[in-house]
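[Discussion] Sanity-checking designs against the backbone

I'm trying to build intuition for which residues belong where. Below is a structure token string of 423 positions. I'd appreciate it if someone posts a full sequence so I can compare it with mine line by line.
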């Protein structure tokens, strides 16, 4: 009988695990993901700002797994696990497993503020990005039509909560849109610029980066007309008003929420393995505390055994990629009951794009800013994109769009109900 490894989630962690399992001919691997595609979160903000197509940064699992006879993909959502019976319950059916790996990442954290979870737009996945894109384009259309000055101002005001890389990158992109697209596509709005606010509760942007990067981002965004407010939290959002912790109010019909993430819930694991922030405690081999055949990798887990990261690793792509890769290699030894290698994170650095031709990069070889950092950013973000054709298409789209300032993706496409869903 072949051993069965079930992997929940085909993000950076899950996919890199599976790539390292292909060679194991004596195991059956089952990947479950709620989407039928793998996607690349760092570039989601470019989809949201109509700069690239969703298909540039996503890739169907079934195509990825073509010819891999020992791997099966089922689209479905994880519901619960029974660690006594070794059964995982999903919307695609219930599966027995010999080994189970959780890699389903995180979801948007609204910090319990209901009005914000109901009214703000999150930006965590491709669906969110398309909703943000539609919303921005619809607001511009409505602004062209309204005769009411206050209504127009609210439609053209975009508030972004969260000054991490996504918030910085998105506000930079919106300011480029204001500078170029508004004038070219919307003659009615020539005299009415968009207002872009970037709000963060911390006293700096790009919290995990160095002071140099933070100062560079702040300077560049201010120059581009983005109104940055630091040490201020977004407290509430209703009646087209964003309420701030310093009692200020911003009238806006759009609040984009990129303030934080929280691990997805895993029902059925021993309570002692779930930490306060919902991350799952794992040992140095990514084995879930209190289990013998259940692993967790990537954003969803927290490991305290790496000497350089005693509080746990940051929730970033490289940690997920490296944990998935190592667990894949370790499985060869797990199946032969041989010793495994402990995980230790190699930090390859951090980067953020600020606007066209400007970025900051903190790499093991040094600090870079401006155009050089921007070129590095493009190269480093092209390499991990799944599929050679996707890499080429993305290069081509970037070249055209950066040079022309006029991408042609500003389509408002709101899928309606499918005929079978109506019944
Ligand atoms: C907008 C954005 C920008 C980012 N930018 C950067 C960056 O520039 N650099 C960087 O290093 N990191 C960045 N990150 C963080 C990085 O994307 C994550 O650290 C990384 O994706 C974690 O990988 P993962 O495999 O653990 O989870 P994910 O990549 O989130 O993958 C989780 C997978 O699980 C699936 N899934 C979720 N729930 C279920 C369920 N219930 N059932 C079945 N499947 C499920 C999802 O569909 C997804 O495919 C960014 C994140 C976001 C959201």
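Best answer:
Here's mine. Compare freely.
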């Amino acid at each position: 009988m072949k051993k069965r490894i079930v992997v929940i989630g085909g993000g950076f962690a899950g996919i890199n695990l599976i790539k390292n399992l292909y060679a194991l001919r004596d195991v059956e691997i089952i990947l479950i993901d709620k989407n039928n595609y793998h996607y690349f979160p760092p570039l989601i903000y470019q989809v949201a700002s109509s700069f690239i197509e969703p298909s540039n940064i996503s890739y169907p699992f079934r195509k990825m797994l073509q010819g891999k006879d020992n791997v099966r993909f089922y689209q479905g959502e994880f519901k619960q696990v029974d660690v006594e019976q070794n059964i995982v319950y999903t919307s695609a059916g219930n599966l027995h497993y010999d080994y189970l790996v959780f890699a389903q990442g995180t979801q948007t954290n609204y910090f319990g503020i209901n009005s914000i979870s109901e009214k703000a737009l999150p930006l965590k996945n491709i669906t969110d990005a398309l909703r943000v894109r539609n919303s921005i384009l619809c607001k511009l259309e409505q602004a062209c039509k309204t005769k009411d000055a206050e209504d127009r101002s609210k439609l053209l005001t975009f508030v972004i909560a969260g000054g991490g890389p996504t918030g910085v990158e998105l506000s930079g992109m919106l300011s480029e849109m204001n500078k170029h697209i508004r004038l070219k596509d919307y003659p009615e709005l020539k005299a009415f610029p968009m207002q872009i606010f970037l709000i963060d509760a911390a006293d700096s942007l790009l919290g995990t980066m160095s002071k140099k990067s933070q100062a560079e981002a702040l300077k560049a965004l201010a120059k581009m007309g983005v109104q940055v407010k630091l040490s201020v939290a977004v407290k509430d959002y209703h009646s087209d008003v964003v309420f701030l912790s310093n009692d200020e109010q911003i009238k806006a019909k759009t609040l984009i929420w990129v303030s934080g993430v929280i691990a997805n819930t895993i029902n059925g694991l021993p309570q002692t393995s779930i930490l306060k922030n919902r991350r799952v405690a794992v040992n140095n081999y990514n084995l879930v505390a209190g289990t013998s055949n259940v692993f967790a990798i990537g954003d969803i887990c927290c490991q305290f055994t790496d000497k350089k990261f005693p509080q746990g690793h940051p929730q970033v792509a490289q940690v997920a990629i490296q944990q998935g890769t190592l667990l894949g290699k370790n499985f060869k030894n797990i199946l032969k009951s041989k010793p495994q290698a402990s995980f230790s994170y190699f930090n390859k650095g951090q980067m953020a794009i600020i606007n066209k031709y400007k970025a900051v990069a903190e790499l093991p070889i040094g600090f870079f800013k401006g155009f050089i950092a921007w070129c590095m950013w493009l190269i480093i973000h092209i390499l991990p994109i799944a599929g050679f054709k996707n890499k080429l298409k993305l290069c081509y789209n970037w070249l055209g769009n950066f040079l022309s300032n006029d991408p042609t993706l500003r389509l408002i496409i709101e899928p309606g109900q499918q005929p079978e869903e109506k019944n």
